[in-house]
Here is the input.
Amino acid sequence: MKTINIINGPMNVSAIIQGCMRMPALTKEAAAKVIRTAYDCGVNFYDHATCYGENGAAETRFAEAFPFTGLKREDIYIQSKCGLCFDRNEFDWTKENILSSVDDSLRRLNIEYLDTLLLHRPDVLYDPEEVAEAFDELEKSGKVRHFGVSNLVPMQIDLLKKYVKQPLIINQVQLSLEQSQLIDQALYMNNKTTEFSINRDGNALDYCRLNDITIQAWSPLQVGMFGGTFIDNPEFPELNKTLTDLAERENVSKAAIAIAWILRHPAKMQAIIGTMNPDHIKDICAASDVKLSHHDWYALYLAAGKYLP
Ligand SMILES: NC(=O)c1ccc[n+]([C@@H]2O[C@H](COP(=O)([O-])OP(=O)(O)OC[C@H]3O[C@@H](n4cnc5c(N)ncnc54)[C@H](OP(=O)(O)O)[C@@H]3O)[C@@H](O)[C@H]2O)c1
Here is the structure.
Protein backbone atom coordinates (compact mmCIF):
# COMPACT_ATOMS: atom_id res chain seq x y z
CA MET A 1 0.00 0.00 0.00
CA LYS A 2 1.25 3.43 -0.95
CA THR A 3 1.68 5.64 2.11
CA ILE A 4 1.96 9.37 2.54
CA ASN A 5 3.23 11.68 5.25
CA ILE A 6 0.55 14.21 6.07
CA ILE A 7 2.30 17.55 6.40
CA ASN A 8 2.21 18.66 10.08
CA GLY A 9 0.34 15.42 10.80
CA PRO A 10 0.69 11.67 11.02
CA MET A 11 3.38 9.89 9.01
CA ASN A 12 3.08 6.78 6.86
CA VAL A 13 -0.67 6.85 6.55
CA SER A 14 -2.22 4.72 3.84
CA ALA A 15 -3.29 6.44 0.64
CA ILE A 16 -6.57 4.54 0.92
CA ILE A 17 -8.74 5.17 3.96
CA GLN A 18 -11.48 2.81 5.06
CA GLY A 19 -14.64 4.89 5.54
CA CYS A 20 -16.99 3.59 8.21
CA MET A 21 -20.21 5.43 7.28
CA ARG A 22 -21.88 2.21 6.14
CA MET A 23 -20.74 0.13 9.14
CA PRO A 24 -23.96 0.37 11.22
CA ALA A 25 -25.60 -2.13 8.85
CA LEU A 26 -23.07 -4.83 9.78
CA THR A 27 -22.89 -7.33 12.61
CA LYS A 28 -19.84 -6.93 14.82
CA GLU A 29 -18.30 -10.02 13.23
CA ALA A 30 -18.77 -8.59 9.72
CA ALA A 31 -17.42 -5.22 10.87
CA ALA A 32 -14.35 -6.94 12.31
CA LYS A 33 -13.79 -8.60 8.93
CA VAL A 34 -13.99 -5.24 7.17
CA ILE A 35 -11.52 -3.61 9.58
CA ARG A 36 -9.07 -6.53 9.42
CA THR A 37 -9.34 -7.05 5.65
CA ALA A 38 -8.59 -3.39 5.06
CA TYR A 39 -5.64 -3.56 7.46
CA ASP A 40 -4.27 -6.68 5.78
CA CYS A 41 -4.44 -4.79 2.48
CA GLY A 42 -2.28 -2.03 3.97
CA VAL A 43 -4.97 0.39 5.14
CA ASN A 44 -4.10 1.94 8.50
CA PHE A 45 -6.56 4.87 8.54
CA TYR A 46 -10.28 4.67 9.43
CA ASP A 47 -12.76 7.50 8.96
CA HIS A 48 -15.74 8.11 11.22
CA ALA A 49 -18.20 10.87 12.07
CA THR A 50 -20.61 11.43 14.92
CA CYS A 51 -23.44 11.38 12.38
CA TYR A 52 -22.70 7.97 10.83
CA GLY A 53 -25.67 5.93 12.01
CA GLU A 54 -28.19 6.80 14.65
CA ASN A 55 -26.51 7.95 17.87
CA GLY A 56 -23.06 7.39 16.36
CA ALA A 57 -23.80 3.74 15.53
CA ALA A 58 -20.78 3.40 13.20
CA GLU A 59 -18.39 4.29 16.01
CA THR A 60 -20.18 1.92 18.38
CA ARG A 61 -20.07 -0.97 15.88
CA PHE A 62 -16.37 -0.29 15.18
CA ALA A 63 -15.56 -0.54 18.90
CA GLU A 64 -17.63 -3.71 19.33
CA ALA A 65 -15.80 -5.26 16.39
CA PHE A 66 -12.28 -4.09 17.16
CA PRO A 67 -11.38 -6.74 19.80
CA PHE A 68 -12.07 -9.42 17.15
CA THR A 69 -9.57 -7.95 14.69
CA GLY A 70 -6.40 -8.86 16.58
CA LEU A 71 -5.25 -5.26 16.13
CA LYS A 72 -4.02 -2.82 18.75
CA ARG A 73 -5.16 0.79 19.01
CA GLU A 74 -1.72 2.06 18.05
CA ASP A 75 -1.68 -0.04 14.86
CA ILE A 76 -4.14 2.33 13.21
CA TYR A 77 -5.15 5.97 12.83
CA ILE A 78 -8.70 6.81 13.83
CA GLN A 79 -10.33 9.97 12.54
CA SER A 80 -13.74 11.32 13.43
CA LYS A 81 -15.75 14.36 12.46
CA CYS A 82 -18.23 16.49 14.34
CA GLY A 83 -20.61 19.33 13.63
CA LEU A 84 -23.35 17.62 11.61
CA CYS A 85 -26.30 17.12 13.91
CA PHE A 86 -28.94 15.40 11.80
CA ASP A 87 -30.95 14.53 14.90
CA ARG A 88 -31.44 18.27 15.53
CA ASN A 89 -31.46 19.34 11.86
CA GLU A 90 -28.60 21.77 12.29
CA PHE A 91 -24.85 22.15 11.95
CA ASP A 92 -23.16 23.00 15.22
CA TRP A 93 -19.59 24.17 15.73
CA THR A 94 -20.12 25.61 19.20
CA LYS A 95 -17.41 24.87 21.73
CA GLU A 96 -19.92 22.95 23.79
CA ASN A 97 -20.86 20.70 20.85
CA ILE A 98 -17.28 20.14 19.67
CA LEU A 99 -16.15 19.12 23.17
CA SER A 100 -19.14 16.91 23.89
CA SER A 101 -18.95 15.31 20.42
CA VAL A 102 -15.33 14.31 20.97
CA ASP A 103 -16.18 12.87 24.38
CA ASP A 104 -19.04 10.94 22.82
CA SER A 105 -16.84 9.63 19.99
CA LEU A 106 -14.10 8.53 22.39
CA ARG A 107 -16.65 6.79 24.61
CA ARG A 108 -18.32 5.05 21.68
CA LEU A 109 -15.03 4.08 20.06
CA ASN A 110 -13.66 3.03 23.47
CA ILE A 111 -10.35 4.82 22.87
CA GLU A 112 -8.36 7.53 24.65
CA TYR A 113 -7.60 9.83 21.71
CA LEU A 114 -8.53 10.63 18.12
CA ASP A 115 -5.64 10.90 15.70
CA THR A 116 -7.52 13.51 13.75
CA LEU A 117 -10.71 15.48 14.33
CA LEU A 118 -12.37 17.19 11.38
CA LEU A 119 -15.08 19.81 11.55
CA HIS A 120 -17.65 18.39 9.16
CA ARG A 121 -19.75 20.86 7.16
CA PRO A 122 -19.58 24.55 8.08
CA ASP A 123 -21.93 25.87 10.73
CA VAL A 124 -22.63 29.34 9.35
CA LEU A 125 -23.36 30.62 12.86
CA TYR A 126 -20.03 29.53 14.29
CA ASP A 127 -17.73 31.74 16.30
CA PRO A 128 -14.08 31.03 15.38
CA GLU A 129 -12.88 32.03 18.85
CA GLU A 130 -15.03 29.31 20.35
CA VAL A 131 -13.60 26.75 17.94
CA ALA A 132 -10.09 27.89 18.91
CA GLU A 133 -10.89 27.40 22.60
CA ALA A 134 -12.30 23.95 21.91
CA PHE A 135 -9.23 22.91 19.90
CA ASP A 136 -6.89 24.19 22.65
CA GLU A 137 -8.72 22.15 25.27
CA LEU A 138 -8.78 19.04 23.11
CA GLU A 139 -5.09 19.35 22.33
CA LYS A 140 -4.14 20.03 25.95
CA SER A 141 -6.13 17.10 27.27
CA GLY A 142 -4.58 14.81 24.65
CA LYS A 143 -8.00 13.82 23.35
CA VAL A 144 -7.18 14.95 19.79
CA ARG A 145 -3.75 14.87 18.14
CA HIS A 146 -4.43 16.72 14.87
CA PHE A 147 -7.18 18.91 13.43
CA GLY A 148 -8.75 19.49 10.04
CA VAL A 149 -11.95 20.28 8.22
CA SER A 150 -14.35 18.80 5.70
CA ASN A 151 -16.22 20.48 2.84
CA LEU A 152 -14.75 23.93 3.40
CA VAL A 153 -13.85 26.53 0.80
CA PRO A 154 -10.54 28.39 1.11
CA MET A 155 -11.96 31.58 2.63
CA GLN A 156 -13.66 29.57 5.36
CA ILE A 157 -10.37 27.84 6.11
CA ASP A 158 -8.57 31.18 6.20
CA LEU A 159 -11.07 32.56 8.68
CA LEU A 160 -10.62 29.56 10.92
CA LYS A 161 -6.82 29.71 10.57
CA LYS A 162 -6.84 33.28 11.82
CA TYR A 163 -8.08 32.00 15.19
CA VAL A 164 -6.98 28.42 15.75
CA LYS A 165 -3.35 27.76 16.73
CA GLN A 166 -3.18 24.18 15.50
CA PRO A 167 -2.41 23.53 11.83
CA LEU A 168 -5.44 22.46 9.80
CA ILE A 169 -3.95 19.47 8.05
CA ILE A 170 -6.87 17.92 6.14
CA ASN A 171 -9.80 19.05 4.01
CA GLN A 172 -12.13 16.12 3.27
CA VAL A 173 -14.11 16.84 0.09
CA GLN A 174 -16.07 14.96 -2.54
CA LEU A 175 -14.11 13.76 -5.56
CA SER A 176 -14.73 10.97 -8.04
CA LEU A 177 -14.57 10.47 -11.79
CA GLU A 178 -18.25 11.39 -11.86
CA GLN A 179 -18.09 14.21 -9.29
CA SER A 180 -14.89 15.90 -10.47
CA GLN A 181 -15.79 19.53 -9.83
CA LEU A 182 -12.63 19.94 -7.77
CA ILE A 183 -10.70 19.52 -11.01
CA ASP A 184 -13.12 20.68 -13.74
CA GLN A 185 -13.04 24.39 -13.08
CA ALA A 186 -9.29 24.61 -13.62
CA LEU A 187 -9.58 23.04 -17.06
CA TYR A 188 -12.50 25.14 -18.29
CA MET A 189 -11.42 28.38 -16.62
CA ASN A 190 -13.39 31.39 -17.75
CA ASN A 191 -15.38 29.44 -20.33
CA LYS A 192 -18.93 30.71 -20.57
CA THR A 193 -20.20 27.89 -22.78
CA THR A 194 -20.09 25.16 -20.14
CA GLU A 195 -21.07 24.78 -16.54
CA PHE A 196 -17.86 22.81 -15.96
CA SER A 197 -16.17 26.19 -15.65
CA ILE A 198 -18.22 27.19 -12.61
CA ASN A 199 -15.94 27.73 -9.67
CA ARG A 200 -17.87 25.94 -6.97
CA ASP A 201 -15.22 25.70 -4.29
CA GLY A 202 -12.96 28.76 -4.53
CA ASN A 203 -10.09 26.72 -6.01
CA ALA A 204 -9.95 24.43 -3.00
CA LEU A 205 -7.53 22.01 -4.64
CA ASP A 206 -4.83 24.59 -5.38
CA TYR A 207 -5.45 26.33 -2.08
CA CYS A 208 -4.96 23.11 -0.14
CA ARG A 209 -1.77 22.29 -2.03
CA LEU A 210 -0.43 25.79 -1.41
CA ASN A 211 -1.26 25.59 2.27
CA ASP A 212 -0.05 22.06 3.06
CA ILE A 213 -3.54 20.69 3.57
CA THR A 214 -4.06 17.09 2.49
CA ILE A 215 -7.21 16.42 0.50
CA GLN A 216 -9.20 13.34 1.45
CA ALA A 217 -11.57 12.37 -1.38
CA TRP A 218 -14.90 11.06 -0.11
CA SER A 219 -17.35 8.85 -2.04
CA PRO A 220 -14.82 8.09 -4.80
CA LEU A 221 -17.18 5.69 -6.61
CA GLN A 222 -20.49 7.48 -6.23
CA VAL A 223 -22.84 9.14 -8.68
CA GLY A 224 -23.95 12.42 -7.17
CA MET A 225 -24.06 12.33 -3.42
CA PHE A 226 -25.81 9.05 -2.76
CA GLY A 227 -26.77 7.93 -6.28
CA GLY A 228 -25.13 4.51 -6.11
CA THR A 229 -21.86 3.68 -7.79
CA PHE A 230 -20.96 4.28 -11.45
CA ILE A 231 -19.15 0.92 -11.50
CA ASP A 232 -21.15 -1.42 -13.77
CA ASN A 233 -23.84 1.28 -14.00
CA PRO A 234 -25.46 1.17 -17.50
CA GLU A 235 -25.86 4.96 -17.41
CA PHE A 236 -22.07 5.28 -17.76
CA PRO A 237 -21.21 3.01 -20.72
CA GLU A 238 -18.17 4.92 -21.95
CA LEU A 239 -16.68 5.25 -18.49
CA ASN A 240 -17.21 1.55 -17.79
CA LYS A 241 -15.65 0.63 -21.14
CA THR A 242 -12.50 2.65 -20.39
CA LEU A 243 -12.39 1.32 -16.82
CA THR A 244 -12.70 -2.22 -18.19
CA ASP A 245 -9.91 -1.74 -20.74
CA LEU A 246 -7.53 -0.38 -18.12
CA ALA A 247 -8.62 -2.95 -15.52
CA GLU A 248 -7.82 -5.76 -17.97
CA ARG A 249 -4.49 -4.22 -18.85
CA GLU A 250 -3.52 -3.80 -15.18
CA ASN A 251 -5.17 -7.02 -14.02
CA VAL A 252 -7.22 -5.26 -11.34
CA SER A 253 -10.91 -4.38 -10.86
CA LYS A 254 -12.66 -1.40 -12.42
CA ALA A 255 -13.13 0.07 -8.94
CA ALA A 256 -9.37 -0.10 -8.43
CA ILE A 257 -8.82 1.89 -11.61
CA ALA A 258 -11.32 4.54 -10.45
CA ILE A 259 -9.42 4.88 -7.17
CA ALA A 260 -6.05 4.87 -8.96
CA TRP A 261 -7.35 7.86 -10.95
CA ILE A 262 -7.56 9.83 -7.68
CA LEU A 263 -4.21 8.60 -6.37
CA ARG A 264 -2.53 9.48 -9.70
CA HIS A 265 -3.10 13.18 -9.07
CA PRO A 266 0.13 14.82 -7.87
CA ALA A 267 -1.60 16.46 -4.89
CA LYS A 268 -0.99 13.22 -2.91
CA MET A 269 -4.60 12.86 -1.90
CA GLN A 270 -6.09 10.05 0.16
CA ALA A 271 -9.17 8.23 -1.16
CA ILE A 272 -11.84 7.19 1.36
CA ILE A 273 -13.57 4.02 0.27
CA GLY A 274 -16.95 3.05 1.66
CA THR A 275 -17.46 -0.56 0.66
CA MET A 276 -18.35 -3.02 3.40
CA ASN A 277 -17.64 -6.01 1.17
CA PRO A 278 -14.25 -7.58 2.03
CA ASP A 279 -13.77 -8.81 -1.56
CA HIS A 280 -14.36 -5.29 -2.86
CA ILE A 281 -11.90 -3.92 -0.29
CA LYS A 282 -9.22 -6.33 -1.53
CA ASP A 283 -9.98 -5.47 -5.16
CA ILE A 284 -9.93 -1.74 -4.55
CA CYS A 285 -6.71 -1.72 -2.53
CA ALA A 286 -4.89 -3.06 -5.57
CA ALA A 287 -5.29 0.52 -6.84
CA SER A 288 -2.28 1.45 -4.79
CA ASP A 289 0.04 -0.47 -7.14
CA VAL A 290 -1.54 0.71 -10.39
CA LYS A 291 0.54 3.18 -12.36
CA LEU A 292 -1.78 5.15 -14.61
CA SER A 293 -0.05 7.12 -17.31
CA HIS A 294 -0.67 10.77 -18.05
CA HIS A 295 -2.71 9.63 -21.05
CA ASP A 296 -4.73 7.07 -19.01
CA TRP A 297 -5.72 9.77 -16.53
CA TYR A 298 -7.09 12.04 -19.25
CA ALA A 299 -8.78 9.13 -21.03
CA LEU A 300 -10.71 8.30 -17.86
CA TYR A 301 -11.63 11.93 -17.28
CA LEU A 302 -12.99 12.23 -20.81
CA ALA A 303 -14.82 8.90 -20.60
CA ALA A 304 -16.62 10.25 -17.53
CA GLY A 305 -18.37 12.76 -19.77
CA LYS A 306 -15.99 15.72 -19.86
CA TYR A 307 -14.18 17.16 -22.86
CA LEU A 308 -11.15 19.34 -23.27
CA PRO A 309 -11.86 22.98 -24.05
N1 LIG B 1 -17.04 14.36 4.64
C1 LIG B 1 -18.20 14.08 4.12
O1 LIG B 1 -19.06 14.96 3.98
C2 LIG B 1 -18.47 12.68 3.66
C3 LIG B 1 -19.66 12.38 2.96
C4 LIG B 1 -19.88 11.06 2.56
C5 LIG B 1 -18.94 10.07 2.86
N2 LIG B 1 -17.81 10.39 3.56
C6 LIG B 1 -16.79 9.34 3.88
O2 LIG B 1 -16.45 8.69 2.68
C7 LIG B 1 -16.59 7.28 2.86
C8 LIG B 1 -16.90 6.63 1.57
O3 LIG B 1 -18.19 7.05 1.11
P1 LIG B 1 -19.06 6.10 0.21
O4 LIG B 1 -19.45 4.89 0.99
O5 LIG B 1 -20.14 6.91 -0.39
O6 LIG B 1 -17.93 5.69 -0.86
P2 LIG B 1 -17.81 4.86 -2.17
O7 LIG B 1 -16.65 3.98 -1.96
O8 LIG B 1 -17.81 5.83 -3.29
O9 LIG B 1 -19.15 4.01 -2.29
C9 LIG B 1 -19.38 2.81 -1.57
C10 LIG B 1 -20.52 2.11 -2.23
O10 LIG B 1 -20.08 1.63 -3.49
C11 LIG B 1 -20.31 0.24 -3.57
N3 LIG B 1 -19.18 -0.41 -4.23
C12 LIG B 1 -17.89 -0.34 -3.91
N4 LIG B 1 -17.13 -1.11 -4.73
C13 LIG B 1 -17.99 -1.67 -5.59
C14 LIG B 1 -17.82 -2.52 -6.67
N5 LIG B 1 -16.62 -2.99 -7.03
N6 LIG B 1 -18.91 -2.88 -7.37
C15 LIG B 1 -20.13 -2.45 -7.00
N7 LIG B 1 -20.35 -1.61 -5.95
C16 LIG B 1 -19.29 -1.24 -5.26
C17 LIG B 1 -20.40 -0.23 -2.14
O11 LIG B 1 -21.18 -1.39 -2.08
P3 LIG B 1 -20.59 -2.70 -1.34
O12 LIG B 1 -20.50 -2.38 0.12
O13 LIG B 1 -21.61 -3.73 -1.66
O14 LIG B 1 -19.27 -2.98 -1.95
C18 LIG B 1 -21.02 0.92 -1.44
O15 LIG B 1 -22.43 0.88 -1.51
C19 LIG B 1 -17.65 7.12 3.95
O16 LIG B 1 -17.56 5.88 4.61
C20 LIG B 1 -17.27 8.26 4.85
O17 LIG B 1 -16.20 7.85 5.68
C21 LIG B 1 -17.56 11.67 3.95
In short: Residues 13-222 form a domain with the TIM Barrel fold (CATH 3.20.20.100). The radius of gyration is 19 Å.
